[in-house]
Amino acid sequence: MEAEQHETRTERAKEVDRIAAFSDGVFAIAITLLSLQLAVPAAKDLGHSLVELAPNIFAFVLSFLVIGAFWAAHHRLFSRVIKHDDRLIWLNLAVLFFIVVIPFTTTVIAAHGGSRLGVLVYAFSLVGAGLANVALTAYVLVGRRLCSTSVPAAAVRCSLWLAATSPIVFLSSMLLLLLPIAPSNVTFAWLAIPIIHRMIKWHFRGGSTPSAGGRTQT
Known about the structure:
The protein is an all-alpha fold. The protein contains 8 helices and no strands.
């Protein structure tokens, strides 16, 4: 009986690892595609060309950090997952859908970062990614549905607040577009995300430790 239970747990761990590995591949491809923004324009004056490339560089760095942050959150979450079901797979695919859209929206904001519609398109895609991530995080952690029952309640609350920060900030920035300010200035509101994350982690005083109650990390 113990051998069968151990085999079942091993199979579950393998399936979870397959989902995580697939997700890592999608994140890697999406973040690699961002480099397509950095094609140097064909011009005789290299310095002038690099200046013209500044919006593309800004969009690349921004989206690199955004995708990296989502991957880090995804990695932390899956370090706690000990079993899976079909709903987990589809919620995870919803997150990945919005992640693979980011290279396109990066192209949009690089070319039209000074227009309200350009900023709106980018922010809207990140609201979608954030909400999908909130749904995935809640499904895994709330009620300890797919994670260990030893995960502290503080860790669950902290993870949910961290996940909710991104869609709240990007949605708020979309509302700022209604004000008579330059659309490009709205992007500075996004800098609030890492600051809010630090405040949340400080508030819960380590309650978000990824390995708490999760699978052993190597």
